[in-house]
């Protein structure tokens, strides 16, 4: 009998631990902004981004920026007779979790549009889900070119998908030129084998070779690991002038630090995935002179951007707007702009979905990141990229350029 | 040649980490025939223990003198976790079918990961590990080889731990008690050895070494996160099997072999199947080959098969 009772203790412990694990994954959802006064009908804008895990700094910025846009629309009664709400789900930066989250949003009849995802690899999975439900999806951060242009570069796979940031073709090209201008003619590339990293390295390599640079080594890392010493040692003998990394800051930061601790004292360069204060925190004091490119002009450099950051500040969100705040705000406003026409005569939110998709394709207004409008592929027409350098423990912008 | 030696250095560093963790698997297995899959989490908690010690007591300090205290903090937290784990989760299942403790171990592993993620401030994303003078910072250059300072700490920690462990197992009464229990727990008990106590000590010894490995990994990689125990635990378990499970020397040899195999595969296997993308594949190919031709592991498993 004693034996049996202790068995149950063990079993219940296991059940408890599993249940706890389950809870943890969904612990960060928040939703609801603005007043819900009167008998206004409710339409929801979804947010799907990594709200927990390594990339949550970026995801939370996306969520709050959308919340800000929605709050302002409600305050100014932008859409008479309707109240907007935000419904945020966590994709943890993982494709499978994102697909489940997208399915959950798509099943909600009040959802008219969605801002997200952060990762191109996750959007690949969520695109078909939103497309099947006719829900407008605007990504503030997906730079993978095939999302709007298909594998052949010329067919738009989903009519419901738009983005406010530009693509890795523009970013890779700019990065190559930027590096040559810094006087660095040889480079080793490393990527994390994810859609974003691999694509960025590919477009960078093409442009870098065309601009007269040499790629002396090409390696990959496993993003689940955190010891990159063997890769660093493999790359070091080829004496690159810099390491170009395709991936995100949770790996790039430690990689930069381990490069320098392993005797490879050259700058690490990356794309918008590493342009985050957390990169410098992880890379430590040896990260000075590391380089990055990111989409758009620095938010704080433009008048509209300053206004956005001031309003964001005033709203007292727990986390900063991060790299994609401006793009998320513009994405949410593009949806709201479209809703002004699509919801006007609509019975309910669900029946307005198709009209919203059509209207988003036609929007044109001045946003935080420049003119917000989309071409026939759903891509933004603004292709500004900025080069950054770590100086004194901070990202400093070096130059911006419109590469279109 | 330089590259070869450089990768040997990298391999030894990585291997020392695996070896320190693998000892924990092997010591526990040798005594209770339990694969303690939560051992990787004990390693992870050690790293967080060190970080917490530093954050609470020495925030901002970079002097070498804080390192021993951080190690001590790590060891305390890990040992406590392991002992409580043994008492609450494994002891009640002693004598139960083997599958029950194994599944419990996996449950505890998930439980500990999520507990750290939820309750350690900021642990939802990677945390920066403190920089300590002398053991972090720019690499030492010796005859063309670049040696990470933390690598010296890691290998040194393995050497010191291995010597102390050998002394403990072979030269102390408790250690001899451990050997006796691993050979025949029933007879050992008849001889007046407190088997429960020996088992707790086995868990504690493994946890102490895992905690040191946790600090070493923090210093090496400059960051820690709540998932770090999973992959490290898996690799260390592989190392223990490679060397011969239940055999302490085997765990050390297996760990070093696995580490060197991984770095060599990164450097010297050319073409599509080479590079760091395939290093784990080659490491496991090595494991399979060893198990096909020497199922007892490199140094032979030291397990008395009790029906």
UniProtKB/TrEMBL annotation, chain A:
Query: What is the top-level taxon of the source organism?
Result: Bacteria
> Which keywords belong to this entry?
Signal
Q: What region holds the Leucine-binding protein domain?
A: 44-379
Give the range the annotation lists for the signal sequence: 1-21
Q: What is this protein called?
A: Branched-chain amino acid ABC transporter substrate-binding protein
SUPFAM superfamilies hit by this protein? Periplasmic binding protein-like I
Q: Name one Pfam family in it.
A: Peripla_BP_6
| CDD domains registered for this protein in UniProt | PBP1_ABC_LIVBP-like (cd06342)
Give the organism, scientific name.
Knoellia sinensis KCTC 19936
Query: PROSITE patterns, per this entry?
Result: PROKAR_LIPOPROTEIN
Q: Does the keyword Signal apply?
A: yes
The answer to whether UniProt assigns keyword Signal to this entry is: yes
Q: Which InterPro entries match?
A: Leu-bd (IPR028081), Peripla_BP_I (IPR028082)
Q: Which family does it belong to?
A: Belongs to the leucine-binding protein family.
Automatic annotation (TrEMBL), chain B:
Localization, UniProt: Cell membrane
* A Pfam family hit: BPD_transp_2
An example Gene Ontology molecular-function term = L-isoleucine transmembrane transporter activity
Q: Which family does it belong to?
A: Belongs to the binding-protein-dependent transport system permease family. LivHM subfamily.
Tell me what this protein is called: ABC transporter permease
Question: Which BP terms in the Gene Ontology apply to this protein?
Answer: D-alanine transmembrane transport; L-alanine transport; L-isoleucine import across plasma membrane
Would the keyword Kinase turn up in this protein's UniProt record? no
Against Gene3D superfamilies, the record matches this protein to: ABC transporter involved in vitamin B12 uptake, BtuC
Q: What is this entry's stated membrane topology?
A: Multi-pass membrane protein
The organism's superkingdom is given as Bacteria
Entries under InterPro entries matching the protein: ABC_BtuC-like, ABC_transp_permease, BCAA_transport_permease
Which residue windows are transmembrane per the record?
A: 12-32, 38-57, 64-84, 99-120, 150-169, 198-220, 232-261, 281-304
CC terms in the record's Gene Ontology section: plasma membrane
Where this protein primarily resides, as one coarse class? membrane
């Amino acid at each position: 009998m004693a034996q049996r009772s202790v068995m149950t203790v063990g079993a219940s412990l296991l059940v408890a631990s599993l249940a706890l694990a389950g809870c943890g994954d969904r612990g960060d959802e928040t939703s609801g902004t603005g007043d819900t006064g009167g008998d206004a009908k409710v339409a929801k804008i979804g947010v799907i981004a990594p709200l927990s895990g390594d990339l949550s700094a970026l995801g939370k910025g996306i969520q709050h920026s959308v919340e800000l846009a929605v709050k302002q629309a409600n305050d100014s009664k932008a859409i008479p007779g309707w109240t907007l709400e935000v419904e945020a789900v966590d994709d943890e930066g993982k494709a499978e979790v994102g697909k489940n989250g997208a399915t959950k949003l798509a099943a909600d009849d009040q959802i008219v549009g969605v801002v997200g995802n952060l990762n191109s690899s996750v959007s690949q999975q969520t695109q078909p889900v939103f497309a099947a439900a006719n829900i407008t999806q605007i990504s503030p951060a997906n730079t993978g070119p095939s999302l709007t242009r298909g594998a052949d570069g010329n067919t738009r796979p989903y009519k419901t998908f738009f983005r406010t940031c530009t693509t890795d073709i523009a970013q890779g090209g700019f990065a190559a030129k930027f590096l040559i201008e810094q006087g660095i003619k040889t480079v080793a590339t490393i990527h994390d084998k994810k859609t974003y990293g691999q694509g960025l390295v590919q477009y960078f390599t093409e442009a870098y070779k065309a601009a007269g640079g040499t790629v002396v080594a090409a390696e990959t890392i496993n993003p689940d690991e955190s010891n990159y010493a063997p890769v660093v040692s493999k790359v070091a003998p080829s004496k690159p002038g810099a390491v170009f990394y395709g991936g995100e800051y949770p790996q790039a930061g430690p990689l930069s630090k381990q490069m320098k601790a392993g005797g490879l004292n050259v700058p690490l360069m990356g794309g918008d995935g590493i342009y985050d204060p957390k990169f410098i925190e992880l890379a430590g004091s040896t990260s000075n002179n590391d380089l990055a490119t990111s989409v758009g002009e620095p938010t704080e450099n433009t008048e509209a951007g300053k206004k956005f950051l001031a309003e964001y500040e005033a709203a007292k969100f727990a986390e900063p707007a991060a790299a994609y705040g401006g793009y998320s705000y513009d994405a949410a406003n593009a949806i709201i702009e479209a809703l002004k026409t699509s919801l006007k005569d609509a019975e309910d939110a669900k029946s307005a979905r198709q009209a919203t998709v059509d209207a988003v394709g036609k929007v044109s207004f001045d946003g935080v990141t420049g003119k917000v409008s989309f071409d026939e592929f759903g891509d933004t027409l603004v292709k500004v990229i900025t080069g950054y350098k770590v100086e004194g423990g901070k990202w400093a912008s070096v130059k911006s350029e419109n590469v279109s | 040649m330089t590259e070869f030696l450089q990768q040997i250095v990298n391999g030894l560093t990585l291997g020392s980490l695996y070896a320190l963790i693998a000892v924990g698997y092997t010591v526990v297995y040798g005594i209770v025939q339990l694969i303690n899959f939560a051992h990787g989490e004990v390693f992870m908690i050690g790293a967080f223990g060190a970080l917490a010690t530093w954050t609470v007591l020495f925030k901002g300090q970079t002097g070498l003198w804080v390192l021993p205290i951080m190690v001590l903090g790590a060891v305390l937290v890990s040992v406590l976790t392991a002992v409580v784990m043994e008492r609450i989760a494994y002891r009640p299942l002693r004598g139960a079918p083997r599958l029950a403790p194994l599944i419990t171990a996996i449950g505890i592993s998930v439980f500990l990961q999520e507990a750290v993620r939820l309750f350690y401030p900021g642990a939802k994303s990677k945390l920066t590990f403190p920089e300590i003078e002398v053991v972090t910072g720019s690499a030492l250059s010796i005859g063309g080889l670049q040696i990470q300072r933390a690598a010296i700490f890691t290998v040194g920690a393995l050497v010191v731990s291995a010597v102390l462990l050998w002394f403990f197992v072979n030269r102390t009464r408790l250690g001899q008690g451990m050997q006796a229990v691993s050979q025949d727990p029933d007879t050992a008990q008849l001889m007046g050895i407190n088997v429960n106590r020996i088992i707790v000590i086995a868990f504690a010894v493994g946890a102490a070494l895992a905690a040191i490995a946790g600090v070493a990994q923090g210093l090496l990689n400059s960051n820690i996160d709540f998932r770090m125990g999973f992959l490290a635990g898996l690799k260390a378990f592989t190392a223990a099997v490679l060397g011969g499970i239940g055999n302490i020397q085997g765990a050390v040899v297996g760990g070093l072999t696995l580490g060197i195999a991984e770095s060599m595969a990164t450097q010297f296997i050319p073409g599509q199947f080479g590079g760091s993308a395939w290093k784990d594949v080659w490491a496991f190919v090595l494991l399979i080959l060893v198990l096909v031709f020497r199922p007892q592991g490199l140094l032979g498993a030291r397990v008395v098969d009790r029906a």
